Amino acid sequence: MKRTLALLGLTLAVCSLACAQDAAGDRVVVPARNTNHPRKVDASLLHGSITVKAYAGKEVIVETRGAGSVSQSDRTVDGLRRLDFPPRGLTVEEEDNVVTVRMPSNHSGNLVISVPADTSLKVHSLHGEISVEGVTGEIDADSLHGAVTLTNVSGNVLAHSLNGAIKATMDRVDTTKPMSFSTLNGSIDVTLPADFKANVKLTADHGEIYSDFDFKLGGSITQRNDTSDGRFRVRIDRTLNGTINGGGAEATFHTYNGTIYIRKKK
């Protein structure tokens, strides 16, 4: 069964979703219907930041801050002033313990989402930063133009930014699943538990790599091609392969323009 709430100037409540609207933004409370397995939040924005924080409650609380039309102006026509619709545009949908959050492309605004700690996340922003704190589920965070910051999280992480730094502090790591931290333009700064175990790939095309972990490093990736015309080619790129604490699941760190820091949690 699908439950949907749409806020587009008017407040519409469907089924048991609770919502509120004021001058500061919208607020939607999604009740916990099935607590037998963790929830997942799928949130996506074109213009705005996404902040997710764990809290002690069972509901998922979605709030907007600073919402408004991207293309607002003070145009007048024949001396008449334009009357704008209220700056609203939030859709929240829940089905099978998956909460989907969207805003229309012509609206900007920041999302603040409060979740139970064991919630899994898939969060994406085209133009905005992503911040996650205290979440212990699976995290998939992607910002095209903005930093990704993960604070005191656990589980496994896929974090990506095209233009922005990535910073993460992990309390525990699910060593049965791969992790990835990547950015085109920005540094990567990740703090991991001292007993972290992984097979690691590190690439900094135009930068350096620093760590206080004891790496057992292998050689750089080498590509060898023997062609029919007798030519021979070897390519060695700026990738380091190695293991931490004997190895484990794959962990990838890749930046094109930036420095990689892998820190041991004190």
Task: Present the secondary structure layout.
Blueprint: E1 3-8, E2 10-11, E3 18-22, E4 25-30, E5 40-47, E6 50-55, E7 60-69, E8 76-77, E9 80-81, E10 90-95, E11 98-102, E12 107-116, E13 120-127, E14 130-133, E15 139-145, E16 148-155, E17 157-163, E18 166-173, E19 179-185, E20 188-192, E21 198-204, E22 209-211, E23 215-217, E24 222-226, E25 232-236, E26 239-244, E27 250-257, E28 260-264
Parallel strand pairs: 5-11, 5-13, 6-12, 6-14, 13-15, 14-16, 15-17, 16-18, 17-19, 18-20, 19-27, 20-28, 21-27, 22-28
Antiparallel strand pairs: 1-2, 1-10, 3-4, 4-7, 7-12, 8-9, 10-11, 21-26, 23-26, 24-25
Q: How much beta, percentage-wise?
A: over 45%
Counting H and I runs of at least 4 residues, what is the number of helices? Answer: 0
Strand order of the largest sheet: 2-1-10-11-5-13-15-17-19-27-21-26-23
The oligomerization state is single chain
Average pLDDT score: 84
If you compute it from the alpha carbons, what radius of gyration comes out, rounded to the nearest whole angstrom?
22 Å
Percent of residues in helices: under 10%
Choose one word for the global shape. Answer: globular
Order of helices and strands: EEEEEEEEEEEEEEEEEEEEEEEEEEEE
Q: Which structural category do the helix and sheet elements fall into?
A: mainly beta
Low-confidence stretches are 6-16
Largest sheet: 13 strands, mixed
Q: Could you give the distance between the termini?
A: 46 Å
Strand runs, count: 28
